[in-house]
From TrEMBL:
The protein's name in its UniProt record: Gfo/Idh/MocA family oxidoreductase
Matching PANTHER family: BCDNA.GH03377 (PTHR43818:SF11)
Pfam families from the UniProt entry: GFO_IDH_MocA, GFO_IDH_MocA_C3
Disordered as annotated region, ranges: 254-293
UniProt KW Oxidoreductase keyword: yes
Length: 293
Protein backbone atom coordinates (compact mmCIF):
# COMPACT_ATOMS: atom_id res chain seq x y z
CA UNK A 1 0.00 0.00 0.00
CA UNK A 2 1.39 3.41 -0.92
CA UNK A 3 1.83 5.98 1.81
CA UNK A 4 -0.39 9.02 1.39
CA UNK A 5 0.55 12.38 2.83
CA UNK A 6 -1.98 14.98 3.84
CA UNK A 7 -1.91 18.31 5.57
CA UNK A 8 -2.47 18.29 9.31
CA UNK A 9 -4.24 20.96 11.32
CA UNK A 10 -2.68 23.08 14.04
CA UNK A 11 -3.97 22.49 17.53
CA UNK A 12 -4.64 26.19 18.12
CA UNK A 13 -8.27 26.26 19.22
CA UNK A 14 -11.25 24.24 18.06
CA UNK A 15 -11.47 23.43 14.37
CA UNK A 16 -14.30 25.26 12.55
CA UNK A 17 -16.30 22.72 10.52
CA UNK A 18 -19.16 22.81 8.04
CA UNK A 19 -21.66 19.98 8.24
CA UNK A 20 -23.10 19.19 4.79
CA UNK A 21 -26.41 17.33 4.97
CA UNK A 22 -28.94 18.31 7.61
CA UNK A 23 -30.98 15.11 7.55
CA UNK A 24 -31.41 12.52 10.30
CA UNK A 25 -27.72 11.62 10.60
CA UNK A 26 -26.59 15.19 9.99
CA UNK A 27 -28.53 16.22 13.09
CA UNK A 28 -26.81 13.43 15.03
CA UNK A 29 -23.45 14.81 13.88
CA UNK A 30 -24.47 18.29 15.05
CA UNK A 31 -24.83 16.79 18.53
CA UNK A 32 -21.35 15.25 18.28
CA UNK A 33 -19.87 18.57 17.12
CA UNK A 34 -21.58 20.45 19.95
CA UNK A 35 -20.27 17.95 22.50
CA UNK A 36 -16.64 18.10 21.33
CA UNK A 37 -14.19 20.74 22.54
CA UNK A 38 -12.03 20.08 19.45
CA UNK A 39 -14.47 21.39 16.83
CA UNK A 40 -16.91 24.27 16.49
CA UNK A 41 -19.83 24.45 14.05
CA UNK A 42 -19.03 27.13 11.44
CA UNK A 43 -21.93 26.36 9.13
CA UNK A 44 -24.49 23.93 7.75
CA UNK A 45 -25.16 23.26 4.06
CA UNK A 46 -28.11 21.39 2.59
CA UNK A 47 -30.01 21.44 -0.69
CA UNK A 48 -32.97 22.32 1.51
CA UNK A 49 -32.26 25.86 2.72
CA UNK A 50 -34.80 25.64 5.54
CA UNK A 51 -33.25 22.43 6.88
CA UNK A 52 -29.79 24.03 6.77
CA UNK A 53 -31.08 27.12 8.59
CA UNK A 54 -32.85 25.11 11.28
CA UNK A 55 -29.73 23.02 11.87
CA UNK A 56 -27.39 26.03 11.96
CA UNK A 57 -29.63 27.75 14.48
CA UNK A 58 -28.58 25.12 17.02
CA UNK A 59 -25.14 26.78 17.30
CA UNK A 60 -24.44 30.46 17.92
CA UNK A 61 -22.96 32.21 14.88
CA UNK A 62 -23.15 29.22 12.54
CA UNK A 63 -23.96 30.13 8.92
CA UNK A 64 -26.44 28.30 6.71
CA UNK A 65 -26.79 27.90 2.97
CA UNK A 66 -27.14 25.67 -0.04
CA UNK A 67 -23.68 26.37 -1.51
CA UNK A 68 -20.69 24.78 0.24
CA UNK A 69 -18.11 27.13 -1.35
CA UNK A 70 -19.99 30.22 -0.17
CA UNK A 71 -20.64 28.97 3.37
CA UNK A 72 -17.07 27.70 3.76
CA UNK A 73 -15.57 31.00 2.61
CA UNK A 74 -17.87 33.21 4.68
CA UNK A 75 -17.52 31.11 7.84
CA UNK A 76 -13.77 30.45 7.70
CA UNK A 77 -14.39 26.69 7.87
CA UNK A 78 -11.30 24.50 7.88
CA UNK A 79 -12.92 21.08 7.51
CA UNK A 80 -16.11 19.44 6.22
CA UNK A 81 -18.27 16.66 7.62
CA UNK A 82 -20.15 15.11 4.69
CA UNK A 83 -23.43 13.59 5.94
CA UNK A 84 -25.31 13.79 2.65
CA UNK A 85 -27.14 10.86 1.07
CA UNK A 86 -24.76 8.36 -0.61
CA UNK A 87 -25.29 9.63 -4.17
CA UNK A 88 -24.03 13.06 -3.08
CA UNK A 89 -20.86 11.84 -1.37
CA UNK A 90 -18.85 12.08 -4.61
CA UNK A 91 -19.75 15.65 -5.65
CA UNK A 92 -19.76 17.09 -2.13
CA UNK A 93 -16.45 15.55 -1.11
CA UNK A 94 -14.80 16.43 -4.44
CA UNK A 95 -15.89 20.03 -3.99
CA UNK A 96 -14.64 20.19 -0.41
CA UNK A 97 -11.24 18.74 -1.35
CA UNK A 98 -10.98 21.20 -4.26
CA UNK A 99 -11.61 24.00 -1.77
CA UNK A 100 -8.62 22.73 0.22
CA UNK A 101 -10.71 21.30 3.04
CA UNK A 102 -10.24 17.85 4.63
CA UNK A 103 -13.38 15.72 4.81
CA UNK A 104 -14.81 13.35 7.41
CA UNK A 105 -17.50 11.45 5.51
CA UNK A 106 -20.32 9.15 6.43
CA UNK A 107 -20.51 5.63 5.08
CA UNK A 108 -20.66 4.44 2.37
CA UNK A 109 -17.46 6.12 1.14
CA UNK A 110 -19.29 6.59 -2.17
CA UNK A 111 -22.02 4.98 -4.24
CA UNK A 112 -19.59 2.65 -6.07
CA UNK A 113 -16.02 1.38 -5.83
CA UNK A 114 -15.09 3.52 -8.86
CA UNK A 115 -16.39 6.64 -7.11
CA UNK A 116 -14.59 5.73 -3.89
CA UNK A 117 -11.31 5.30 -5.77
CA UNK A 118 -11.90 8.67 -7.43
CA UNK A 119 -12.31 10.25 -4.01
CA UNK A 120 -9.13 8.61 -2.71
CA UNK A 121 -7.25 9.95 -5.75
CA UNK A 122 -8.74 13.43 -5.30
CA UNK A 123 -7.71 13.47 -1.64
CA UNK A 124 -4.17 12.47 -2.55
CA UNK A 125 -4.04 15.08 -5.30
CA UNK A 126 -5.35 17.79 -2.95
CA UNK A 127 -3.03 16.72 -0.13
CA UNK A 128 -6.05 16.66 2.19
CA UNK A 129 -7.31 13.93 4.46
CA UNK A 130 -10.52 12.14 3.42
CA UNK A 131 -11.68 9.61 5.98
CA UNK A 132 -14.93 7.75 6.53
CA UNK A 133 -16.39 7.50 10.00
CA UNK A 134 -16.57 4.00 11.46
CA UNK A 135 -18.48 4.07 14.68
CA UNK A 136 -19.13 0.40 15.42
CA UNK A 137 -15.67 -0.46 16.75
CA UNK A 138 -16.41 1.98 19.58
CA UNK A 139 -19.41 -0.10 20.67
CA UNK A 140 -18.51 -1.39 24.13
CA UNK A 141 -20.20 -4.77 23.65
CA UNK A 142 -18.59 -5.32 20.25
CA UNK A 143 -15.23 -4.72 21.90
CA UNK A 144 -16.20 -7.26 24.60
CA UNK A 145 -17.16 -9.76 21.88
CA UNK A 146 -13.77 -9.21 20.25
CA UNK A 147 -11.99 -9.74 23.60
CA UNK A 148 -13.80 -13.05 24.09
CA UNK A 149 -12.87 -14.13 20.56
CA UNK A 150 -9.23 -13.98 21.66
CA UNK A 151 -9.91 -16.86 24.10
CA UNK A 152 -11.44 -19.31 21.65
CA UNK A 153 -8.19 -20.56 20.16
CA UNK A 154 -8.10 -20.98 16.40
CA UNK A 155 -11.17 -19.49 14.76
CA UNK A 156 -13.37 -21.17 12.16
CA UNK A 157 -16.52 -19.27 11.26
CA UNK A 158 -18.01 -15.91 12.20
CA UNK A 159 -21.64 -15.32 11.21
CA UNK A 160 -23.98 -12.35 11.28
CA UNK A 161 -27.74 -12.57 10.78
CA UNK A 162 -29.46 -9.24 10.18
CA UNK A 163 -33.23 -9.13 9.65
CA UNK A 164 -35.25 -5.97 10.01
CA UNK A 165 -38.15 -4.32 8.21
CA UNK A 166 -37.76 -0.52 8.39
CA UNK A 167 -39.90 1.78 6.27
CA UNK A 168 -37.46 4.64 5.77
CA UNK A 169 -38.82 6.53 2.80
CA UNK A 170 -36.10 8.66 1.17
CA UNK A 171 -32.96 7.58 -0.66
CA UNK A 172 -32.79 4.00 0.67
CA UNK A 173 -36.07 3.13 -1.05
CA UNK A 174 -34.69 3.96 -4.48
CA UNK A 175 -30.95 3.23 -4.34
CA UNK A 176 -29.52 0.24 -6.21
CA UNK A 177 -28.03 -1.75 -3.31
CA UNK A 178 -29.69 -0.46 -0.14
CA UNK A 179 -28.73 -3.32 2.20
CA UNK A 180 -25.17 -3.89 0.99
CA UNK A 181 -24.24 -0.23 0.52
CA UNK A 182 -26.10 1.49 3.28
CA UNK A 183 -26.17 -1.12 6.04
CA UNK A 184 -24.01 -4.22 5.54
CA UNK A 185 -20.88 -2.09 5.52
CA UNK A 186 -21.24 -1.87 9.31
CA UNK A 187 -21.03 -5.63 10.02
CA UNK A 188 -18.43 -6.12 7.27
CA UNK A 189 -16.20 -3.64 9.01
CA UNK A 190 -17.06 -5.00 12.45
CA UNK A 191 -16.09 -8.50 11.28
CA UNK A 192 -12.65 -7.23 10.27
CA UNK A 193 -12.35 -5.71 13.72
CA UNK A 194 -13.54 -8.81 15.61
CA UNK A 195 -11.31 -11.18 13.65
CA UNK A 196 -8.42 -8.76 13.23
CA UNK A 197 -8.36 -10.01 9.65
CA UNK A 198 -8.89 -8.66 6.14
CA UNK A 199 -11.04 -10.14 3.38
CA UNK A 200 -9.18 -12.23 0.82
CA UNK A 201 -12.15 -13.14 -1.39
CA UNK A 202 -15.93 -12.90 -1.32
CA UNK A 203 -18.90 -14.61 -2.95
CA UNK A 204 -22.13 -12.70 -2.65
CA UNK A 205 -25.67 -13.14 -3.88
CA UNK A 206 -27.93 -10.13 -3.67
CA UNK A 207 -31.65 -10.29 -4.38
CA UNK A 208 -34.97 -8.62 -3.70
CA UNK A 209 -37.71 -10.64 -1.94
CA UNK A 210 -40.98 -10.55 -3.89
CA UNK A 211 -42.74 -8.47 -1.19
CA UNK A 212 -39.89 -5.94 -0.90
CA UNK A 213 -40.83 -2.27 -0.80
CA UNK A 214 -37.30 -1.31 -1.94
CA UNK A 215 -36.51 -0.68 -5.62
CA UNK A 216 -33.02 -2.15 -5.25
CA UNK A 217 -32.03 -5.51 -3.79
CA UNK A 218 -32.83 -5.49 -0.08
CA UNK A 219 -31.45 -8.93 0.86
CA UNK A 220 -28.05 -10.57 0.47
CA UNK A 221 -25.85 -13.43 1.56
CA UNK A 222 -22.07 -13.04 1.43
CA UNK A 223 -19.30 -15.51 2.27
CA UNK A 224 -15.87 -14.01 2.87
CA UNK A 225 -12.59 -15.84 3.15
CA UNK A 226 -10.55 -13.80 5.59
CA UNK A 227 -6.80 -13.76 6.11
CA UNK A 228 -5.79 -16.80 8.15
CA UNK A 229 -8.55 -18.88 6.53
CA UNK A 230 -11.44 -17.88 8.79
CA UNK A 231 -14.80 -17.61 7.03
CA UNK A 232 -17.18 -14.73 7.64
CA UNK A 233 -20.80 -15.38 6.59
CA UNK A 234 -23.30 -12.53 6.44
CA UNK A 235 -26.95 -12.99 5.65
CA UNK A 236 -29.50 -10.24 5.95
CA UNK A 237 -32.65 -8.54 4.75
CA UNK A 238 -34.11 -5.10 5.12
CA UNK A 239 -37.59 -6.42 4.44
CA UNK A 240 -37.55 -9.24 7.01
CA UNK A 241 -40.49 -8.61 9.35
CA UNK A 242 -41.00 -10.65 12.51
CA UNK A 243 -38.56 -11.70 15.25
CA UNK A 244 -36.27 -8.92 14.09
CA UNK A 245 -32.61 -8.90 15.08
CA UNK A 246 -30.99 -5.89 16.69
CA UNK A 247 -29.64 -3.14 14.43
CA UNK A 248 -26.20 -4.70 14.79
CA UNK A 249 -27.54 -8.17 13.92
CA UNK A 250 -27.00 -11.45 15.74
CA UNK A 251 -23.43 -12.78 15.85
CA UNK A 252 -21.86 -16.21 16.40
CA UNK A 253 -18.18 -17.04 16.44
CA UNK A 254 -17.09 -20.68 16.35
CA UNK A 255 -13.56 -21.45 17.52
CA UNK A 256 -11.32 -24.34 18.50
CA UNK A 257 -12.18 -24.11 22.23
CA UNK A 258 -15.75 -22.88 22.13
CA UNK A 259 -18.26 -20.39 20.84
CA UNK A 260 -19.08 -16.75 21.47
CA UNK A 261 -22.43 -15.16 20.61
CA UNK A 262 -23.61 -11.56 20.64
CA UNK A 263 -27.14 -10.29 20.07
CA UNK A 264 -25.80 -6.96 18.85
CA UNK A 265 -26.93 -5.08 21.92
CA UNK A 266 -26.22 -6.68 25.28
CA UNK A 267 -23.17 -8.48 26.68
CA UNK A 268 -21.70 -11.28 24.56
CA UNK A 269 -21.92 -14.88 25.80
CA UNK A 270 -19.19 -17.51 25.71
CA UNK A 271 -19.50 -21.27 25.99
CA UNK A 272 -16.17 -23.03 26.07
CA UNK A 273 -15.52 -26.75 25.99
CA UNK A 274 -14.49 -28.40 29.29
CA UNK A 275 -10.81 -28.65 28.40
CA UNK A 276 -10.45 -25.03 27.55
CA UNK A 277 -9.22 -22.39 29.93
CA UNK A 278 -12.62 -20.68 30.10
CA UNK A 279 -12.57 -17.19 31.52
CA UNK A 280 -16.08 -15.92 31.99
CA UNK A 281 -15.36 -12.66 33.69
CA UNK A 282 -18.24 -10.22 34.20
CA UNK A 283 -19.57 -8.78 30.95
CA UNK A 284 -19.19 -5.09 30.16
CA UNK A 285 -22.22 -2.96 31.05
CA UNK A 286 -24.81 -2.59 28.31
CA UNK A 287 -24.52 0.70 26.46
CA UNK A 288 -27.85 0.26 24.71
CA UNK A 289 -28.94 -0.47 21.19
CA UNK A 290 -27.86 1.67 18.29
CA UNK A 291 -31.06 2.25 16.36
CA UNK A 292 -29.33 3.64 13.34
CA UNK A 293 -28.62 2.57 9.82
N1 LIG B 1 -23.00 5.66 10.67
C1 LIG B 1 -24.29 5.43 10.90
O1 LIG B 1 -24.66 4.72 11.84
C2 LIG B 1 -25.31 6.08 9.99
C3 LIG B 1 -26.65 6.10 10.38
C4 LIG B 1 -27.56 6.72 9.50
C5 LIG B 1 -27.13 7.26 8.30
N2 LIG B 1 -25.81 7.19 7.97
C6 LIG B 1 -25.33 7.76 6.69
O2 LIG B 1 -25.46 9.18 6.75
C7 LIG B 1 -25.77 9.69 5.44
C8 LIG B 1 -27.05 10.50 5.54
O3 LIG B 1 -28.10 9.67 5.96
P1 LIG B 1 -29.46 10.28 6.55
O4 LIG B 1 -30.19 9.15 7.16
O5 LIG B 1 -29.15 11.49 7.37
O6 LIG B 1 -30.19 10.74 5.20
P2 LIG B 1 -31.29 11.90 5.04
O7 LIG B 1 -31.96 11.64 3.74
O8 LIG B 1 -32.11 12.01 6.29
O9 LIG B 1 -30.42 13.23 4.94
C9 LIG B 1 -29.57 13.51 3.84
C10 LIG B 1 -29.51 15.03 3.67
O10 LIG B 1 -28.52 15.33 2.67
C11 LIG B 1 -29.04 16.39 1.89
N3 LIG B 1 -28.35 16.39 0.60
C12 LIG B 1 -28.46 15.48 -0.39
N4 LIG B 1 -27.65 15.82 -1.42
C13 LIG B 1 -27.01 16.96 -1.05
C14 LIG B 1 -26.06 17.80 -1.68
N5 LIG B 1 -25.58 17.53 -2.91
N6 LIG B 1 -25.64 18.91 -1.02
C15 LIG B 1 -26.11 19.19 0.23
N7 LIG B 1 -27.03 18.44 0.87
C16 LIG B 1 -27.47 17.33 0.24
C17 LIG B 1 -30.54 16.10 1.79
O11 LIG B 1 -31.26 17.27 1.42
C18 LIG B 1 -30.84 15.62 3.20
O12 LIG B 1 -31.21 16.68 4.06
C19 LIG B 1 -25.88 8.47 4.52
O13 LIG B 1 -24.67 8.28 3.85
C20 LIG B 1 -26.15 7.32 5.49
O14 LIG B 1 -25.69 6.09 4.99
C21 LIG B 1 -24.90 6.63 8.79
Amino acid sequence: MSSVTFRTVSDAGPLPVVVVGAGAMGRAWLGAVAASPDVVLAGVVDLDADAARAAADTAPGALAGTDLAAVAAASGARAVIDVTSPAAHLPVTLQALALGLPVLGEKPAAASVAEALRLAAAAEHAGQLFMVSQSRSHHRQLRAFRDRARRLGRLGVLTTEFFRAPRFGGFRDTMAHPLLLDMAIHPFDAARYVLDAEPVSVRCEEFNPSWSWYAGDAAATAVFEMTGGVRYVYTGSWCGPGLETSWNGGWRLSGEHGTATWDGEGPPRVSSDPDADADLDPPAPDDGPQDIA
